[in-house]
Amino acid sequence: MLKGFGNLVDILKNAKDIQARVDDVQKDLAQRRFDAEAGGGAVRITVDGRGIVTDVSIDPAAVNDVELLEDLIKAAIGAAVARAHDAMRQEMARLTGGLNIPGLDNMFAGQ
Predict the structure, then answer these.
(1) What is the reported pTM?
(2) 48-69 per-position pLDDT tens digit
(3) Do 29 and 88 meet the contact criterion of CB atoms below 8 Å apart?
(4) Are 80 and 46 in contact (CB under 8 A)?
(5) For the chain, which residues make up each domain, given as ranges?
(6) Which end of the chain has fewer CB atoms at under 10 Å, N or C?
(7) CATH domain 5-104 topology
């Protein structure tokens, strides 16, 4: 009757191990930086592995056209955040051996 509980204990232990490894990956990614630029380098954005903007650099010549500058900033932020998310997906794939575990990507949201 208790035979099936052994598998449940193993599953819970594995989940705990995966959570610990996810925590380690989160800490590592939070320390990494991802850069992107737009407008041939007129705007350069740096984000951390969580997608939070950590640095902004704007060429003074780009300030003449505010609308263009806004578009360049959005493009650079989008590209930098995409790089951070790609790195997170690669780390998750490495962590899970390529298995797609629903919701695992969401563990990084808001970190």
Answers:
(1) 0.72
(2) 998 999 999 999 998 999 999 9
(3) yes
(4) yes
(5) 5-104
(6) N
(7) Ybab; Chain: A; (3.30.1310)
